[in-house]
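Protocol check, entry for the methods section draft. Step 1: assemble the input record (protein sequence plus ligand SMILES). Step 2: submit for complex structure prediction. Step 3: store the structure tokens unaltered in the notebook. Ligand used here: flavin mononucleotide. Step 1 record:
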Amino acid sequence: MKQGFRDALRVLEDAGELRRIKKAVDPRHFSALAAQAKEATFFEAIEGYPSWRAAGALVSTRKRLALAMGCSEADIARRFEDGIRRPVDARLVSDGPCQEVVWQGDAVDLTAIPLPLMHVKDGGPYISATMVVSKDPEYGRNVGSYRLMYRTPRDTGIDLVSSSDMRRYYQRALDAGRPLEIAVAVGVHPYEMLAASYKAPIDVDEYAIAGGLHGAPVDLVRCRTVDLEVPADAELVLEGELLPIGWTADEGPFGEFSHITGDVKWNPIFRVKCITHRRDPIFYMLQMPWENDWLAAPVIEAAGLQALRIASVEPVAIRAPVGGCCYWTLIASIRKRPGEGKNALLALLSVAEVKLAIVTDDDINIYDPDELDWAMTFRIQADHDVLIIPGARGKHIDPSVRAWSLGKGGLPTTAKLGIDATIPEGVPREQYERLRYFAKDAVRLEDYL
Ligand SMILES: Cc1cc2nc3c(=O)[nH]c(=O)nc-3n(C[C@H](O)[C@H](O)[C@H](O)COP(=O)(O)O)c2cc1C
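Step 3, stored output:
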């Protein structure tokens, strides 16, 4: 059976990875408190919001993401690949807990939800854990994750600047002079969040991807005021439309997944027409930047695995380290044949987001930074094993691409760097034989204690 947000909390708690906070907390303090906890946080009481509880930092570490995905930390990419290979269509059901309470018309009031103020320079309180649904007459249903900034009791900003399917849907609605209806589900299982953040082809329904990850259909209910469907087990749903005003309203700044505060952007406005939620709702505060980063990891790692296989290279392990925001860097170990260190680099750097790729042989544990340093020290000759590709597509939020100098609408470029830390061709493997201690198997420390 499909799991929900509350199942994810239970799995974390059973593994000792959830900290319950009983004392009432101001929503402006959620983020700072979650950042100090070693575990995910569950706020059992919220000042001024007696019927709400909140949870955050569910997948702030690779360990917690792996727990949510029911696999080992090394297997998150393969687990994700299995899910997207076997999509399961969503199922429409007649009702669900996400509509136990309905606020419509004058009752709509975003200030009645405990919205967190997360970072020092944020343009306002943000809803960071969104699963946003929209439809296009030609392409069908789309699901993505898009942050929302509180503006008024009925309006939020939305960051729709980067190219995405929903940006395209909005542009098409705008061209036709009409608003774009959207529905926003908050408090869904991490599988739904992964499906939303996955860049599926435009005609693929990401609910089926979420179903593939669950191995069971996602139950959907029809929204009350828009022609859209949302997960029946969501904690909270906002229904409404993106006003046909184009990219004209200021949105941001916001603490980005790059761990840096992003600029103010020009974006559309989301007008909320209806709010539905569970009778005892739990607000999901997705903790920036960590949860955003870790939700990217399986997607980027799976893209790296696929690129390696297309290049006929056999991957052994792959890792998108959090230092590269699980987005800009890929490290892979491969079962190498001559020349494949370089082929692997070309493959990994072909993943659009990846700016730095490192490849090692399969004897290196790429999860151990000391092993990686060792390979980088003794298997690299910089004049042979470093690949620099200038002028590739970059991302605005990387300060080193100097996007501010490009003017409005300018697209930044970046250099990509590949490091081949595999044993160089022509150097015998025996040269790398590790130290072995004399009589290691003959003596046992316990016998001498
Ligand atoms: C937590 C989270 C928040 C995100 N916020 C945004 C955002 O505000 N704007 C954006 O363009 N992309 C954002 N993304 C990335 C998009 O969700 C991602 O590109 C997705 O594939 C877009 O879906 P679509 O192309 O099907 O519309 C976010 C991803 C995650 C995991």
